[in-house]
Every structure is written in C-alpha cells, then in structure tokens.
Amino acid sequence: MAPGRSTHWKCPKCGDRFLAVNRRHSCGKFKLEPLLAVCDPGAAAAFRKLVSVLRENGPIRVIPKKSMIIFQATRRFGAVTTGKARIRCSLMLPRLVPDPRFERIHTFGPGRHEHVFGLRTEADLDASVVEWIRDAYRLASDARPDIPPAIARRYR
Ligand SMILES: [Zn+2]
Predict the structure, then answer these.
(1) Which of 83, 107, 108, 137 allows an S-S link to 57, with CB 3.0 to 4.6 Å?
(2) Is the pLDDT of residue 153 over 70?
(3) Residue 143 Cα, ligand 1 centroid: separation in angstroms?
(4) What is the pTM of this model?
C-alpha cells in the first residue's frame, strides 16, 4: 500500500496527504516534468538515481510542488530543488553527520537535523549518500526501532 493511504488526512483541493488534519501546506497540483526540464542530463540522471535509491528503502511518495519536489514515507523526510548543473537535496537525519559535502545543517531539535547537499551526476550517489538516505527513510517511516518513541513523535 502506498504510504499514508489510510491514516492520513487528504487535502480536498490538491490531494496531498498529512498526518495532521488541515495542515498548512503549499496547496496546488504540480507536475514533475517542468521542474526537471531545467536540468542538464547529469543533474536529471542524479535525480532519477536518487528516487530509485529512495525506493530501495520502501514505499515513498514523490510530490512535486511549485518550486521543489518533496519525498514522503509516513512523514516527509526530504526535498529537492532542481537546477541546471545540479540538484540541491535536503534530508532530515537523526544525527549530525560530518561530511564536507553538506552546505548547510539546520537542527530543528533532538534527533532532527536537516542536511543540505548537492548532486551533479548519478556517480555522486556513493555509499555515504545511500546511507544518509537509508537513515532519513527510517526516521520518517513507522519501521524505526532505533528511534526512541519520544523523538519519533516529533516527526508527526
Ligand atoms: Zn492542498
């Protein structure tokens, strides 16, 4: 079953799904194609590879918005903005990860650290990136035995 199919509130206008009823969001129907049309072949390939690595972890929803693409498992855990030479990714990770590729790290609270990095080609998705993606997915899905419930609740 696709994530959020039964337990989530569905916005009647755009069909977006959230755990919280009437959650504020960027409402509207958008398509993936125009967001990817700005990408060079390398950046577009990096995006396709990113989605395929995400899906190796389990079901996700890929949600195009006006200027970004959001990834959702049970909760939202990442986003991409597309550019010509690269895509800019953000992933919510349970711990601070020291890696020079992170351009920005924003801490929202204990066990909630948004890490921002760029991908230029599919080769940029190395073993470390695959590991970050796995951690972000786990944090945002219901199958996360390694996350204490008190922290996990903050993602809802
Ligand atoms: Zn909506």
Answers:
(1) 137
(2) no
(3) 27
(4) 0.81
